[in-house]
Amino acid sequence: MSSLHTAWFEGFHPQQFDVNGVRLFARLGGRPIDDDSAPVLLLLHGFPQTHALWHRIALRLAPHFRLVLPDLRGYGDSDKPPGLADHANYSKRTMAEDLIALMDTLGHRRFHVCGHDRGGRVAHRLALDHPQRVDRLCVIDIVPTLTMYERTDMAFASAYYHWFHLIQPAPLPERMIGGNATYYLHAKLGGWGAGGLDHIEPPALIDYERCFCNAAGIHAACEDYRAAASIDLVHDRMSRSAGQKVAAPLHVLWGERGVVHRLFDPIADWQAVCEGPVTGQALGAGHFIPEEQPEACALAMSRFFLGEC
């Protein structure tokens, strides 16, 4: 896994897909798409990023997997529709349905999923709503959304203040962030234990700035969080009441310098919502593990998805 190409996403093909009423951007790469012997891996980024988060991971995993790297609804070069009154068009259920439609278009009936940050929350809902589609699930530096909200205290609210700022009614957070969007973006990317921006590849940072630092990108991110604090919690409580749990084996990675490590118990918190086996480990990073520790992260992912752990 140490021999990597230097060109930006060399061997990966950008495409646009019309799915579930929106247009999604995705890069496809790795093993040939018609190579049925190679497992399919869907990689989901989080806030405030794009699929570019996965660049160094994707290059390391490309020899072993057919890879699908979308920009989630509201992020990157995917559509950013105005939020509805109930924020349903940014619910994790709707975003998961986007991805099911994308994978249907690509002909992938079953696949692995890995999500970082918000992408992990979409992946969690996808695994709950579509258990027959997910072989294995990996989430990076999160515990379940409902768990995090239910345990909110001063320490969590201080560290993840954006969870409570972004959910305020429009256009308050949009206008506040829009006053200096680049400053805000850099503060987020350099925070949560990351220790600055050195972990980010220059082309990735350009992508994040281009896609986030505009009115549509800021509004879409706010809608993602507004949905998380409203309709997503309704869906999560319904799943809990019905006894619905993740059926697929789950592997969780988290950063030793991050908020999740400091305030939660990732293995136990995921075991509470899973019926399948839960494994995991902390890595020497803050929140942005795929960029801070790409080699260790890719190795852990590869071993899990190839059934070696």
TrEMBL record:
<dbReference type="GO" id="GO:0016787">
    <property type="term" value="F:hydrolase activity"/>
</dbReference>
<feature type="domain" description="AB hydrolase-1">
    <location>
        <begin position="39"/>
        <end position="164"/>
    </location>
</feature>
<dbReference type="Pfam" id="PF00561">
    <property type="entry name" value="Abhydrolase_1"/>
</dbReference>
<dbReference type="InterPro" id="IPR029058">
    <property type="entry name" value="AB_hydrolase_fold"/>
</dbReference>
<protein>
    <submittedName>
        <fullName>Alpha/beta hydrolase</fullName>
    </submittedName>
</protein>
<dbReference type="InterPro" id="IPR000639">
    <property type="entry name" value="Epox_hydrolase-like"/>
</dbReference>
<keyword id="KW-0378">Hydrolase</keyword>
<dbReference type="InterPro" id="IPR000073">
    <property type="entry name" value="AB_hydrolase_1"/>
</dbReference>
